[in-house]
Amino acid sequence: MNPLDLGVNFSPSFSVKFCNIYENVGEICDSKLCTATFIEQGKILVLKAV
Questions:
Q1: Of all helices (H) and strands (E), which one includes residue 6?
Q2: What top-level branch of life does the organism fall under (predicted)?
């Protein structure tokens, strides 16, 4: 896999939605702006919050 597969090279940062599911409250979600970097010859995708 390379950055072309995810279009990462066209988008330096993008929004990722993180959700926690609570029994009583339901789902609470938070969007964070992230950047993506491939390491280990493209085997590992690292997401970092901006």
A1: helix 3-6
A2: Eukaryota
At 13, phi and psi to the nearest 5? -140, 150
Residues in the chain: 50
- pTM here? 0.43
List, edge to edge, every strand of the sheet that includes 14-22: 14-22, 26-39, 44-49
With H, G, I as helix, E, B as strand and everything else as coil, classify residue 48.
strand
pLDDT tens digit string along 1-50?
Answer: 455 555 555 557 788 888 999 999 999 999 888 888 888 887 888 888 87
